[in-house]
Amino acid sequence: MTQHAFIKLMPKSTQQTITLAEIKDLFHYYKNITAKTGDQVNWNYGEAAFPYVMNERTHNDHTLLELVSNEDRYNHFYVGVKEENDEHIIFLSLPENATFGDKGKANEFCRFLAKKLQGQLHLFNGRIMYFYKR
């Protein structure tokens, strides 16, 4: 069964609109900061923290970012952007063949994106986390 998590960009978020290219840039930033952490502890943490390759896919006239891994504990998941009622929403979708490792990394990336953008995070388990000032 496909699972979804999403981040709503709120009026008090750092930005109210976002594109897939900006999300891609945020993932590159994430890779960069985790690699620097790995350098400090003399370990290749960048590869372990982000074991995915990003590809763009088109599905039902929507462009999605597919994160694919060749690692044994990971498979893939999708990231996309949609607009509903003048709100931009970032969604992460775990397909049926996603692993527990994919779900863990997707949760980690959700928290990172929501914290960086100061959005409202709706996790896979239905819980909501608020990273914007209320």
TrEMBL record:
Q: Which InterPro entries does its entry note?
A: DUF1885, Rbstp2229-like_sf
Q: Which Pfam families match?
A: DUF1885 (PF08968)
For this entry, the protein name equals DUF1885 family protein
